[in-house]
Amino acid sequence: MTQHEPDTSESAFTVLVAMAANAGIGVAKLFAGLLTGSSALLSEAAHSAGDAGTEVLLLTALRRSERPADRVHPFGYGKERYFWSLIAAVAIFVSGAAFSVWEGVRTILTANEPLRHAWVNYAVLLVAFILEGTSFVRAVRHTRDEAVQRRRSARSYLRDPDDPTIKSVVLEDFAALIGIVIATVGVALHQITGNSLWDGLASLMIGALLIVAAFLLAQSCKRLLIGKQADSRLVRAIERTLEEQPEIVDVVDLVTMMVGTDRILVGARVDFGDEYSSAQLEEACVRIDGLLRDRYPGLDEIFIQPVPREDPELRSRVLRRYGRTLAD
User: Fold this and answer.
1) Nearest by Cα to 62 from 18, 16, 93
2) E-assigned strands of the chain?
3) pLDDT tens profile 121-165
4) What confidence tens digit (pLDDT) does each residue in 27-37 have?
5) Cβ-count burial 231-260 (b if 16+ within 10 Å, e if not)
6) 3-state SS class at 9
């Protein structure tokens, strides 16, 4: 199993497409909401504005995460992508969900307001659906390409991504499409019944939808910020590669952590054969380091520590972490 180099330009273009679509759609929804008095359209305008702001944060994440390692941050700035994606998730909730809930409650509690020029709402929502759908299709294609390169299913990659920026775009666009459908139903029921209650309920549903999207994105970012291990198949492949080396008797412990998109820290504690001299083991460590980097280009930093496999304290720690000992 191999890793690939991150394609930041492709991710950035996907985010830019989504941002342009959301900015244009947001202005159109705001105009329609103010013209017709539709609460659902105003909530959708807030939704699009929040999404556009989120894309600005995601572009910031892509740019800042590519900075090289320095003395203060020896493992680089890769986790900035996770941090800004988390901020983007909070932005979805604060800017979009809060306004939608407030607008929905206000509409329900106030007297019925007639719906004016309803056809404007339908026209704007149709155009919005087409543009959001175009952005969504591109984001899904990008996700599938990323999943194929990692030999994972698209569903698995979306559920537990290495790059939260792509999940952000997919979630935003998917939520936007559902939100447009909800807004259309709310506007139609408002027009048919003359009761603005339906418009208010649509706004509340859009707010709830945004809260769910923000929560799902925040969960992914939280795991990555805390320090998620690399894909389990990659970890097993690294373990097998280490065990194939003639100098290594057994792999006693193996820890990995995502320090950025396609950047993985590896720490291996291995039991070397007693017949090798210190000079030979130094040469072996250099060779093994190069071998791992050639086979798995996503590895960023590799640490190899010699330890005895009979050490009871170390074996106990490994057992608590993995539920099994790696050494035979």
Assistant:
1) 16
2) 248-260, 263-272, 299-306
3) 888 888 888 888 888 888 888 788 877 877 777 777 777 777 777
4) 888 888 788 77
5) beebbebbeebbeebebbbbbbbbbbbbbb
6) helix
* Residue type at 3 in one-letter notation: Q
DSSP 40: H
Return the bridge partners of 235, or none: none
Token pair of 260, please?
A: 């950025």
CB-hemisphere CA count at 13 Å for 256? 20
Tokens of 303: 């640490």
Provide the sign of the torsion angle of the four alpha carbons 303, 309, 313, 316, taken in this order.
Answer: positive
Sheet with 263-272, side-by-side order of all strands: 248-260, 263-272, 299-306
DSSP state of 273: -
CA 254/CA 141 separation, integer angstroms: 34
Give the pLDDT mean for 38-54: 77
- Tell me, what DSSP letter sits at residue 72? S
Task: Output the CA torsion sign for 128, 133, 134, 140.
Answer: positive
Write the burial class of residue 85 (CB in 10 Å: 0-12 exposed, 13-18 middle, 19+ buried). buried
Quick one: pLDDT band at residue 2, thresholds 50, 70, 90? Answer: very low
